[in-house]
C-alpha cells in the first residue's frame, strides 16, 4: 500500500501484475516439482542432491550441470513416452541405468528374479545401453527360429568397430559374414578339417605338446607365443604331407 501511494496508479498496477505473474509462475513450478517427485522419485532425489551440490560450485560448472540435468530430464521423458512400444522392465537411473539393481558377480540371478515380475521378455538398461532379455527355452527358440532375421545379427561393440570396423568371421553380419564363413570353411577343409587324418595328427601333436609342457615344471613362461605357433605349424604340415 505504501508503494502504491508513492507511485502513479499506472506504475502501481504494472507492479501488481508482475507480482501476481511471479507468484503464479512459482506455484506452477512447485506443482510440477511435486508431480515429478510422485511419479519419478529417483529423479527427484537426484535433483535434491544437485541442488545441494550446486550451491558450492562456480558459475561455469553450474551451467554444465544444468545442461546435463536438462538432457537427462528430456531423455527420461522421451523414454517414458516410448515405454509402450517396448517390453516392460524396471526403471533405471540416468547414465547408470539398472546397474545398481544388478548382481554384477552373478547377473543371471538378478535376471531370473526379474522374470518373475516382468515375464520372459523384458527390458533393462546396462548404463545408457538398452538391452532386451529373453528368458526360457520356448522364448529363445521362438526368437532364434521364427524370427531369425530380426535376431540374427551380433551386437556391435564400439571397441571392435574402432579396431576392425566390425569385420571378420567373428564379428561381421549379413552377407559379409556368409561370404567370409564360406571362404574360411573352404580353406579349412583344405587343411583337413572334418577328416580323420586331421584328428589323428592333432592328437599326435598334443602328445608332444604335453611332453614339452612337463619340462616347464611350474615356471612363469609356460605359454610362449612361439610354442603355440610351432604346434599349429606342425599340424598344418603333417596334414599337408598326409
TrEMBL record:
UniProt keywords (A-Z) are:
Iron, Membrane, Metal-binding, Transmembrane, Transmembrane helix
Q: What is the lineage of its organism?
A: Eukaryota, Metazoa, Chordata, Craniata, Vertebrata
What family, per the record?
A: Belongs to the cytochrome P450 family.
Q: This chain belongs to which protein, by name?
A: Cytochrome P450 2K1
Give the gene name: LOC106512670
Q: Which GO terms describe its biological process?
A: organic acid metabolic process; xenobiotic metabolic process
GO CC terms in record: cytoplasm
Any signal peptide, and if so, which residues? none
- Which cofactors does the annotated protein need, by name? heme
Q: Where are the membrane-spanning stretches?
A: 57-74
The Swiss-Prot or TrEMBL record annotates one GO molecular function as: heme binding
Amino acid at each position: 500500500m505504501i508503494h502504491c501511494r508513492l507511485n502513479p496508479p499506472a506504475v502501481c498496477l504494472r507492479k501488481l501484475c508482475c507480482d501476481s505473474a511471479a507468484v503464479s509462475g512459482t506455484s506452477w513450478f512447485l506443482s510440477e516439482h511435486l508431480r515429478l517427485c510422485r511419479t519419478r522419485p529417483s529423479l527427484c532425489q537426484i535433483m535434491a542432491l544437485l541442488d545441494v551440490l550446486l550451491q558450492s560450485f562456480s558459475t561455469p560448472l553450474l551451467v554444465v550441470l544444468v545442461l546435463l540435468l536438462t538432457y537427462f530430464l528430456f531423455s527420461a521423458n522421451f523414454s517414458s513416452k516410448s515405454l509402450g512400444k517396448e517390453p516392460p522392465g524396471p526403471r533405471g537411473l540416468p547414465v547408470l541405468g539398472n546397474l545398481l539393481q544388478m548382481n554384477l558377480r552373478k547377473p543371471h540371478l538378478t535376471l531370473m528374479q526379474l522374470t518373475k515380475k516382468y515375464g520372459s521378455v523384458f527390458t533393462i538398461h546396462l548404463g545408457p545401453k538398452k538391452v532386451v532379455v529373453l528368458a526360457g527355452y520356448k522364448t529363445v527358440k521362438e526368437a532364434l527360429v521364427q524370427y531369425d532375421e530380426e535376431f540374427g545379427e551380433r551386437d556391435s561393440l564400439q571397441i571392435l568397430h574402432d579396431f576392425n570396423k566390425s569385420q571378420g568371421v567373428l564379428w561381421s553380419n549379413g552377407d559379409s559374414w556368409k561370404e567370409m564363413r564360406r571362404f574360411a570353411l573352404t580353406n579349412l577343409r583344405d587343411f583337413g578339417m572334418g577328416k580323420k587324418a586331421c584328428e589323428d595328427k592333432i592328437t599326435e601333436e598334443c602328445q608332444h605338446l604335453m611332453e614339452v609342457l612337463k619340462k616347464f615344471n611350474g615356471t612363469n613362461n609356460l605359454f610362449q607365443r612361439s610354442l603355440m605357433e610351432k604346434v599349429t605349424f606342425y599340424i598344418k604340415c603333417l596334414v599337408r604331407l598326409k
